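re: ur question from yesterday

yeah so i grabbed the chain u mentioned. its 319 aa long if i counted rite. heres the sequnce exactly as i have it in my notes:
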Amino acid sequence: MKIVIAGGSGHVGAVLRRGLAQPNRVIVVLSRDTKPLLGATRVVRWDGKTLADWTQELEGADVVINLAGRSVDCRYHARNLAEMMESRLLSTTAIGRAISMAKSPPTLWLQAGTATLYAHRFDAPNDEVDGSLGGEEVDAPAKWKASIAIARAWEEAVNRVPTPDTRKVILRSAMTMSPDRGSVFDVLSRIVRLGAGGTVGSGRQFVSWIHEEDFVRALEWLIERDEISGPVNLCSPLPIPNREFMAGLRTAWGRSLGLPTPTPLLEIGCWLLRTESELVLKSRRVVPRRLVESGFTFAYPRWDDAAADLANRRREGFK
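ran it thru and got these structure tokens back, copy pasting raw so excuse formatting
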């Protein structure tokens, strides 16, 4: 099996290279930097927008996974929002055009998306069938609406490209938790170990997440099931409020107490760190209805178990 991962040099790419690698597989990464990557058979240069020699890698490939897009870990000012939008639309359009022009196109296109697409809510979970899409809330901050607009345009870019011989699945992913350096779990763990891992904001907002093992297993599941196409939520079936989420992380690291972060203090901290409070204040109550109904079972459905596993792996020297 040949798998092409566009934008596969980041944290999620590392998870996939590590998890998908098998002796009988060729893993090709498309990246601006062609230095060798662990788990990749080879790395091929691309700029995320221009059709060039990299398109030949899609000929005869079994699966193409597009993860490309500017990081959301930034301030949501006009320039960064424009770069977030442009990087997603250009890379997605380039992959779609390459697939449509291929003489022997990939069987499956797995396109990264985001659970940010769903509405901020506490009352009920959002799934792919009955979930409420965000952006229509009257009281939603303008920056929240901007990130939702990007998420919607991202999916529309996928759907606009005709790929009659290639099945398309949009991965509406929650935070992928892995022990990698610089990952979301790593950043949150450092905060907890420093004693500041208490409730963030009101603590009522739901956190959706997925353990790296389940993320990879879910993609393997989607690769094997020709009947599944369209949007699929990639997240644990048990999202929990931030208050419980942080408590579970403190337990995993053996910390009984953590200083809370009220919203005003959070806003100051986010400004200093050049990131946005939306990433932790928006209630992302998302569940994986389509995965569960198709028969997929999670190895780590509960956050306490997932956090304990990830913390133990870091203690044991995970690199």
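noticed a couple things. The first strand starts at residue 2 and ends at 6. also The mean pLDDT is 94.
anyway ttyl
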